[in-house]
Write a structure and sequence with these properties.
Layout (H helix, E strand, L loop, with lengths): L1 H14 L3 H26 L3 H7 L7 H4 L5 H16 L3 H19 L3 H5 L5 H34 L2 H7 L2 H28 L3 H8 L4 H12 L6 H25 L2 H7 L2
Length: 263
């Protein structure tokens, strides 16, 4: 465990010198908080008739989503649903920038060879690098979401705020979120071990965000609506993918091959 802690400390000392990493960890969560706050405040300044029109029959899935709510409350709940789903991007976007840089970045700074020459095992090395990416992503996601919910307590309607406390979103943020983080880190680590340019590693790793963007589009257009059953299915699927990717990541990380190919 001491070796893993050493790797984590070393990773943080290195990667947080990267401006892109600092932006993703520090400023990206602030953006995700600011956008819904500005939107809700702007919506609150609209006349009642305008909010009624926004929350009318044009809301996809309104009959399921807005039972017992008036049209204005329905529009607000629909809007916050989209923003809550957007918080699922954070546990993927943040660790990708860290994990993608973790191996190839060390190669470009010529610090990988001495590290691989140490008696640390491949599992310990990858565990340290993975946790160095996972911990900031999970903490930033949880903290920013809690701030978002706290602000909505005062800015959103009572009906919309109650919807944010639905177990659906608690499961999504606090369970599915970390599972997505592990998935993103595994993919980014495998890519980082195979390329020789940190920018290429980061760009390729960002592909894992595409399914989440498609999910947001599907929710906003009414193609499907996220409910507890769908979130639980997603949790099981992502957990299975994590298990497979963890094995593949260890197998793909060939210490000798990496050193000889990158000479």
């Amino acid at each position: 465990m001491e070796k893993i802690q050493t790797i984590i400390s070393k990773e943080w000392a290195e990667v947080f010198k990267n401006r892109l990493v600092l932006f993703s960890v520090a400023f990206l969560p602030l953006v995700f908080i600011a956008v819904p706050v500005v939107t809700v405040v702007a919506a609150g300044s609209l006349e009642g008739a305008a909010m009624e029109e926004f929350g009318g029959e044009g809301i996809p899935g309104a009959e399921t989503l807005c039972q017992g709510m008036n049209a204005a409350e329905c529009g607000e709940v629909f809007m916050l649903n989209i923003y809550s789903l957007m918080f699922m991007i954070l546990p993927v976007a943040i660790p990708v920038t860290i994990a993608a840089y973790s191996i190839v970045g060390e190669k470009t700074t010529r610090s990988l060879e001495p590290l691989l020459a140490t008696p640390i095992t491949t599992s310990e090395l990858l565990a340290g690098k993975a946790l160095a990416a996972i911990i900031p992503a999970v903490v930033a996601t949880w903290v920013s979401y809690l701030i978002y919910v706290a602000l909505m307590r005062y800015l959103a309607s009572a009906a919309a705020f109650r919807h944010l406390l639905d177990p659906l979103w608690l499961i999504a943020i606090f369970i599915v979120g970390p599972l997505l983080t592990l998935l993103a880190v595994s993919v980014a680590t495998m890519i980082s071990a195979r390329v020789s340019d940190p920018r290429v590693a980061e760009q390729l790793s960002m592909v894992v965000i595409v399914p989440l963007i498609l999910a947001i589009v599907g929710q906003s257009t009414g193609l499907f609506l996220f409910d507890r059953q769908l979130i639980l299915i997603a949790a099981v699927v992502v957990a299975l993918l994590d298990a497979v990717l963890l094995v593949l990541t260890v197998q793909a990380f060939q210490r000798e091959t990496i050193l000889t190919r990158w000479k």
